[in-house]
Amino acid sequence: MKIHHLGYLVKKHDKALKEFEKLGFEVTQDTVFDEYRGIDITFLAKEGYVIEIVSPKEKDSVVSELFKKIGNSPYHICYETDDIEKSAAELSQNGYVMWEEPHEAVAMGGKRVCFLVHPFMGMIELVEAGE
Amino acid sequence: MTREEILAKINEIFRDLFDDDSITVNDATVASDVDGWDSLMHITIIGTIEAEFGIKFPMKDIVGMKNVGQLVDKISELSK
User: Fold this and answer.
1) Nearest CA to B22 among B38, B39, B35, B6?
2) CA B31 – CA B10 distance, rounded (Å)
3) pLDDT at B71 over 90
4) Full domain range(s) for residue A63
5) What's the domain count of chain A?
6) Residues within 8 A of A (CB atoms), B 60-79 only
7) CA atoms within 13 A on the CB side of A122
8) How does pLDDT run across A107-123, given as a tens digit for each residue?
9) N or C: which end of chain A has fewer CB within 10 A?
10) Is the Cβ of A92 closer than 8 Å to some Cβ of chain B?
11) Is the pLDDT of residue B68 over 80?
């Protein structure tokens, strides 16, 4: 599977964006509020590397617990797949456990994403390929 | 494996994952009893148990188990 982006968890979204811009990253998609997950998301890129800035906007957001544990930190790599159900099933047979089942992501043009966790390496995201 | 053997193995897994040799879980233990047993750690516990016992939990069971006793029962059922 092709790498789509690196997910980066932060608390202070706008301040974090400014710091990434100082490092040469450019915003490729302005901040979007994902109501389903209770988070703000912005995409940036530098030299072909794409990062997704994620911050909790609600107390019960999908990353609120995680932020308390790891703070500001990269926390997942997202991979593109042509068949999200098939890839998730294959990963599940190889030790991954579903963390969040496939659901539309407004910050990714409505494409479905899902999250899986491997006990020995942590979290990954899958996103449906395509425009 | 007997229930007691499964529970002993679960205790080994908890002590390793939480890096705390003093942890002892029993049938009545719930997530709020163990400091750090949040939703991400729960998934990590499930994945480790799957690897150690060579089983696969159905999705409904991953979120449906209420205490360690139910976890032991499910492992026993899936190990047969």
Assistant:
1) B35
2) 14
3) yes
4) 2-128
5) 1
6) 62
7) 8
8) 999 999 999 999 999 99
9) C
10) yes
11) yes
Tens of pLDDT, residue by residue over B5-15, are 999 999 999 99
pTM beyond cutoff 0.90: no
Nearest to B22 by CA among B14, B31, B32, B30: B14
The pLDDT, as a whole number, for residue B29 is 96
Distance of alpha carbon A66 from alpha carbon A73, whole angstroms: 10
Which residues have a Cβ under 8 Å from the Cβ of A29 and sit 6 or more positions away?
A42, A43, A107
Q: Do B39 and A65 touch (CB under 8 A)?
A: yes
Look at B40 and A96 and tell me if their CB atoms are within 8 Å: no
Q: What is the DSSP letter of A108?
A: G
**Whether residue A131 has pLDDT greater than 80:** no
Find the closest chain B residue to A69 by CA distance.
B36
Given CATH 1.10.1200.10, say whether it is the number of domain B3-79: yes
Domain at A111, CATH number: 3.10.180.10
Contact A11, A67 (CB under 8 A): yes
Residue A105 in tokens = 């992501």
Q: Is A103 on the interface with B (CB under 8 A)?
A: no
- Angle at B52 (CA atoms; ends B50, B54), nearest 5 degrees: 55
Q: What is the distance, to the nearest Å, from the Cα of residue B66 to the centroid of all Cα atoms in its chain?
A: 11
What's the CA gap between A35 and A56, in Å, rounded?
A: 11
